[in-house]
Amino acid sequence: MSELSVNHLLGIKYLNEADIQLIFETADHFKEVINRSIKKVPSLRDITIANIFFENSTRTKLSFELAQKRLSADVINFSASQSSVKKGETLIDTVNNILAMKVDMVVMRHPNPGAGIFLARHVKAAIVNAGDGAHEHPTQALLDSYSIREKLGDVAGKNVVIVGDILHSRVALSNIFALQLQGANVKVCGPRTLLPKHIEALGVGVETNLKKALKWCDVANMLRIQNERLDISYFPTTREYTQQFGVTMDILNEVDKEIVIMHPGPINRGVEISSEVADSKQSIILNQVENGVAIRMAVIYLLASKIKH
Ligand code: CP
Fold this sequence. Notes:
This protein is an alpha/beta fold and 309 residues long. It has helices at 17-34, 59-70, 91-99, 115-122, 138-152, 170-181, 210-216, 238-245, 249-255, 275-278, 285-304, and strands spanning 48-53, 74-79, 105-110, 126-132, 159-163, 185-189, 205-207, 219-222, 260-262.
């Protein structure tokens, strides 16, 4: 297969296993490119991309922009907080005005679940979902699986536990879909209040004891508590949360197993992960960030190749 089955990247839910393998093979090529002394290729000289962010971001925003520049695309950046959205302009009007400037692709982060799906139905551009509320964050899941593949050789057959605030996490849902498509075994672990009801229906195991979850897994993906999405208290205190669900060197030593530690960022040191673990040899957190550029280059390149001028 040499092209994606989709024209937009709205969620992992819309991809198949062959799409993921194509993205990974393309990312392998671009990872080699970005480690050369000349890190740029002319592939997308005829493509213009708008990055529109309605929510804060460090890693996703910077790595999309870098990926686009490495591919020689023209890039414009839009931050909702400094735009006419503040004067009441709608999402569709905003994007159609951007497209009137001859933009081919829109990368969007938005607080509302389904915002990218809505946009793809109403505007003529390739849409990439850079995180939509608590729904999906597909490029994060792709770079996470790519990092597991790089570290362990394969994703199929691996035991992966996702720990923390599953209820409000777009990273969790996209990771569950991506890992299952590739044949991994997935469990979620956290306080019952932060696990969605009926999550087992997605085919994942549920564990509320961190030590048992760590004993089972090859990879632990630690998630932050999404304080910005919490309207009520889901656990008594942050200290109690950390005592039960924070990963520390002490608990890793007790488990006594070579577990790969991941985190999508931003990390809250001393809450879901101790500094010692975050900065340890078991942690691949910065490899995830590095791989984000190659994965986003691959996604943009493959979607751009489907645009008809
Ligand atoms: N992982 C992630 O989405 O980080 P940012 O919010 O900084 O983009």
